[in-house]
Amino acid sequence: MAFGFMITGIIVTDESKSQIGLLMLVEAAICFVVTVLCLIWFYDKPSIPPSISASETREPLCKSLALCLKNSNFLLVFIGFSMIQGTFATLVTLLDPIISPYGFSSTEISILGIIFILVGILGSLIVGIEVTATSKYKLTCFISSLLSLVTLLIFTFTLEFESLVISSFAVALVGLVSAPSASISYEYAIELTYPVEEAVSVAILNTGAMLFGVLQICLGYLFGNSSLAICLVCAISLAVSAIAYLLSKEVLIRAGVDSKKFG
């Protein structure tokens, strides 16, 4: 994603919007190469299961879907994840109309996007280590949503300074606290829905994130792509996300299976 921001800033500038077609071709070529590599080298599963639970037989697709939709804790995580990741997608998609009214060029907007993604990777690494040690999925997801709301408000109000340095710092904070929620929510959902196949619960979460992202983008468009309106929609979504995570009950079924088998 960071590389995508970089090539966008290089190919499409304020003076060459006509190069968007070229950008699409470059991105298509990259996706084609990645797809071929996946088809050649990706295996269905590792030769040695990474855990005891991973070696167990899982539920079939239709039953897995039914179990997920009946699981109230999973549905709360679904709402929380969809809201925060939908906001993440909205900010990345609408970064240009959010920031450009404050005098930032296309190149500077690309720089902010790269900072957002790279600092998000760092945040995911740090939080991943913390959750591996503590297994505090619910608390981590709740704090991530809450801090994402706070940092988004900071980012929104510091745009008035029209400073690349200040906005870079603010967008870095948003990326640092919001990006980790994705991987942690995946693990949290998988714990709640075991013995549902991991791919099923994760696919449902991703579907919700994309749908809510599209909805937020449409709402931003209805409000005329106003910077304040877009950020307000995202802030409300983050507040709902924090509440949903807080209401969920942390039942770590998969971890219980592994610990029981090892015990």
Which descriptors would you attach to this protein?
single chain, 263 residues, mainly alpha, Growth Hormone, Chain: A, 2 domains, 12 helices, 78% helix
Explain the overall architecture:
This protein has 263 residues and is an all-alpha fold. The chain has helices at residues 2-11, 20-41, 61-70, 72-93, 95-99, 106-134, 137-158, 164-178, 180-193, 198-222, 227-247, 253-262. It is globular. The model has no long low-confidence stretch (mean pLDDT 88).
Give the secondary structure arrangement, pairings included.
Blueprint (H helix, E strand, L loop, with lengths): L1 H10 L8 H22 L19 H10 L1 H22 L1 H5 L6 H29 L2 H22 L5 H15 L1 H14 L4 H25 L4 H21 L5 H10 L1
Helix pairs in contact: 1-2, 1-6, 4-9, 4-10, 4-11, 6-8, 6-9, 7-8, 7-9, 7-11, 9-10, 10-11
CATH homologous superfamily designation of the largest domain:
MFS general substrate transporter like domains
Tally the helices: 12
Number of beta strands? 0
| Fraction of residues in helix | over 70%
Looking at CATH, which topology of the largest domain would you report? Growth Hormone, Chain: A
Main sheet summary:
none
Total number of distinct structural domains:
2
Question: What is the H/E string?
Answer: HHHHHHHHHHHH
What class would the helix/strand composition place it in? mainly alpha
Measured distance between first and last alpha carbons = 42 Å
